[in-house]
Amino acid sequence: MARISVRIPEYYDKVIKKLIKTGLFKSKSEILRESINIFIEYELKNMVISENEYNTI
After folding, report:
1. What is d(CA 24, CA 27) in angstroms, rounded to the nearest whole number?
2. Residues 6 or more apart from 30 whose CB is under 8 A from it?
3. What does the alpha-carbon distance between residue 38 and residue 28 come to, in Å, rounded to a whole number?
4. For the chain, what is the radius of gyration of the CA atoms?
5. Smallest Cα–Cα separation from 36: which of 46, 44, 47?
6. C-beta of residue 29 within 8 angstroms of C-beta of residue 19
7. What letter does residue 6 receive in the DSSP assignment?
8. Which candidate, 32, 27, 30, 26, places its Cα nearest to that of 12?
9. Cβ count near 36 (within 10 Å)
10. How far is Cα 45 from Cα 54, in angstroms, rounded to an integer?
11. pLDDT at 55
């Protein structure tokens, strides 16, 4: 797995901490991975790409 470092607005940090506190997620990393997965799936579904291109990603 690749490691990246990002800066996020304070508001997002507060929301992330609340989500962890509620037990919905175990860590910040888990939330960010899930958020990225959702975003990428959404974008891929909305892109006009051939089946071949989708399978090579």
Report:
1. 9
2. none
3. 15
4. 15
5. 44
6. no
7. -
8. 32
9. 11
10. 10
11. 62
> What is the residue type of 7?
R
pLDDT band with cut points at 50, 70 and 90 for residue 53:
low
Q: Give residue-wise pLDDT tens across range 23-41.
A: 999 999 999 999 999 999 8
Distance of CA 15 to the CA centre of its chain: 14
Alpha helices, DSSP H only, in the chain?
A: 10-21, 28-46, 51-56
Q: Is the dihedral of CA 23, 24, 25, 28 positive or negative?
A: negative
The encoded tokens of residue 8 equal 């996020």
How far apart CA 35 and CA 8 sit, in angstroms, is 13
Report how far residue 40's alpha carbon sits from residue 34's, in angstroms, rounded to the nearest whole number.
10
Residue 37: both structure tokens together: 């997965």
